[in-house]
Amino acid sequence: MKSNHIQVVSRVFAFAGLLVCSLAAGAAEPVATKGTVLITGANRGLGLALSKQFAADNYYVIGTARTPQKATELKQVADEVLPLDVTSDDSIKALAEALNGKTVDIVVNNAGYFGPTLGIGANRNRAATLKNLTWSEVLDCFAVNSAGPIFVTQALLPNLLASKQPKIVVISSRSGIITKGSGAGAYGYGVSKTAVNRAVRIMASDHVLSKCIVVAIAPGHNRTDMGGHRAHLLDPAESMKQVKTRIEELTKQHHGRFWYYNGKELPW
């Protein structure tokens, strides 16, 4: 009788141990009910604002930054903060390795670069002339704004294809619209956004991405370090709330098209 009692107690403790281990494993890898979103350039500006929107709505948010140790605010918002320089092949490969085997439902290619003067402030007019344009300004814009989204998407393709409904979003700009009138200047930024728009069109027709919904979204002119802080500009908290809605609403009907943050379709 005593032996049976000991066996029962042992089984109870064994079951309790398994239960504790299961709970601990679950705590180590939290599961978000609405899926996983990865946002590049998430340490400030629009990327940070969009990360906050997704995090507040029970998504598992992976934010990237070139220097994660400095991404203090992002660390308070995102579930993971990973290093990424979208112009570095080694950095992109390291990101893919860090996410090996993980499902990513949404990739938002947000990291962007305007140019050395940001096109604002005292140097705006000087920077806006062809006379002062440099090779580095143009090529740096192309590396970040055009090539970056292509190679980040390429690296994360296995993660995306593991999702039931993968979405690839490129944060573009109305500056890339061919038919849009534009003031002089911002050569690198404008032309690189036109180029990435074309990349979106090509990706939308790529059979490798046939399972994915691929779109470009223009976020509007927001009050950020890159866009300036003039009073009439959009509030990133409000515009990114709408961008999140646009992303959640995406279906195959939106595939391969260019959208404004407010839901209006834009021309290429």
Supply database-style keywords:
about 270 residues, Rossmann fold, 8 strands, 2 domains, 9 helices, alpha/beta, single chain, eight-stranded mixed β-sheet
Task: Describe it.
The protein is an alpha/beta fold and 268 residues long. The protein folds into 2 domains: 1-30; 33-266, Rossmann fold, CATH 3.40.50. 44% of the residues lie in helices and 13% in strands. It has 9 helices and 8 strands. The chain has helices at residues 2-28, 45-55, 72-77, 89-98, 124-127, 135-155, 157-161, 187-205, 236-249, and strands at residues 36-39, 60-65, 80-83, 106-109, 167-171, 213-218, 258-260, 265-266. Strands 3-2-1-4-5-6-7-8 form an 8-stranded mixed beta sheet, with helices on both faces. 40% of the residues are buried. Mean pLDDT is 85; it is low at 8-29.
Stretches with pLDDT under 50, minimum 5 residues: 8-29
**Overall 3D shape:** globular
Strands in their spatial order, largest beta sheet: 3-2-1-4-5-6-7-8
- Find the CATH superfamily of the largest domain: NAD(P)-binding Rossmann-like Domain
**Helical residues, percent:** 40-55%
> Which CATH C-level class of the largest domain is it?
Alpha Beta
* Estimated structural class: alpha/beta
| Shape-level CATH architecture of the largest domain | 3-Layer(aba) Sandwich
Strand content: 5-15%
Q: What is the fold named in CATH at topology level of the largest domain?
A: Rossmann fold
- Order of H and E elements: HEHEHEHEHHHEHEHEE
| Separate helix tally | 9
Mean pLDDT over the residues: 85
Please, how many domains? 2
Taking the sheet with the most strands, its summary is:
8 strands, mixed
- Say how many strands there are: 8
Tell me the Rg in angstroms: 22 Å
